[in-house]
Automatic annotation (TrEMBL):
GO terms for molecular function: phosphate transmembrane transporter activity. Its main location: membrane. The keyword Flavoprotein does not apply. Keywords: Membrane, Phosphate transport, Transmembrane, Transmembrane helix, Transport. Belongs to the inorganic phosphate transporter (PiT) (TC 2.A.20) family. It holds the Pfam family PHO4. GO terms for biological process: phosphate ion transmembrane transport. This is Phosphate transporter. InterPro entries: Phos_transporter. GO terms for cellular component: membrane. It is a multi-pass membrane protein.
Amino acid sequence: MTDFNKHDADHLETLDRDLHRLSYLENATQYVARPMMGPGIALAFMVLAGLSAAIFFGFEPQNYVVILAAVFGAYMALNIGANDVANNMGPAVGANALTLSGAIAIAVVFESAGALLAGGDVVSTISKGIIAPSTMASADVFIWAMMAALISAALWVNLATWVGAPVSTTHSVVGGVMGAGIAAAGLSAVNWPTMSAIAASWVISPVLGGAIAAAFLALIKSRVIYQDDKIAAAKKWVPILVGIMAGAFASYLALKGLKRIMKIDLPTALAIGLALGVAAWLVTIPLIRRQSEGLENRNKSLKTLFGIPLVISAALLSFAHGANDVANAVGPLAAIVHAAEYGSFADKVAIPMWVMIIGAFGISFGLFLFGPKLIRMVGSQITKLNPMRAYCVSLSAAITVIIASWLGLPVSSTHIAVGAVFGVGFFREWDAAKRMRASTVAMPDAQRIAPEERRRRKLVRRSHFMTIIAAWVITVPAAAIMSGLIFYILSAVVH
């Protein structure tokens, strides 16, 4: 009996060891498989997009080009989700007003809603008039040029995301179309005045976004943060700022997000914004008064008053981005579908609903699978954000687009949002230096800070600043060169 028990115990011990080995193996397998999960789901979505195109067009050989275009259109949409959407959600996450998972959930819903409910039903196939359609020799040449533009733009945005640089997906498409157009029809095919305006926007977008964000932060600091009674100041100014936000977003969405329902000119959009802004201001006054009851007179208390407006602004930015930028992303795909279906090409084409669905769901999947890296970069790695600073970034993004529309400038939402983050960071540096100088004048015997220590205390990380600026500058030429090469490869394979 004793021998049996001993044998039984040995057997159980061996079994336990084997089970431990199995559990270690299972954990190791999960650890190895986790990085492959995202690309696997992305690949499945691209295949599904190709199958959708096949269902709509049929599996005939002449439709293979549309099926291939749908696959690359899905790839482009995934990359937009991974890179572009971070600009809307990053500030709210960096300010701890939203968790990463909460931000992704809100962005998925509002990006998709913006794309499907208010996305432009007509898109400029040559991406804002960069290439003259008359220069294309045939519909086939046009199709392969658009295919090259789509592939190169998607590859460039993918590379930028991997490096950790938020770039303009619209500029990537612009560069792709330009490069393929030059490869297909020569330098004369490009509308150079339009390209000059786009190049000017590289500087105008971030500078304007940064200046407006810095101006609002200066206003909040002087009128609220540096006041003796911060809560009393907040009761007065937070409703005004919420009213400005509501008015700016109402104008922005009326101008950019309602193309499918009706065409609204700038004066009408501003009138709508003014009416809704005043209404929001009046509604917010009692809400902020009630929310501020019992709060201590310190900066930490102010953060709670800006939390909800910041979340709302992030959601509205996502809706507007979905409405405005998805069409740019799926533009080359829509152009290919039109050319394949009708055997001709035009300046503007309608976007089929199934193409918009690929764009909307692709952005959502891309954000969910690959977005956290860029959200963290924009939200916390460039400069430290709190709800007040993040609110200035969101407000600046909406106002800058309205000003740019009024001036007729082609601007990038990515450049505006990231420029606003830089603007907030550089204003904080300037403000901190000014206050330090003032304290040194007041107390001459105060300890002076060494230049090395002053450099270390910079509030904007210079390495990220240089990486992002470099990525912005080379986006159009890099996408153009890749697109030209891809066009030559595709032409050689097809012929």
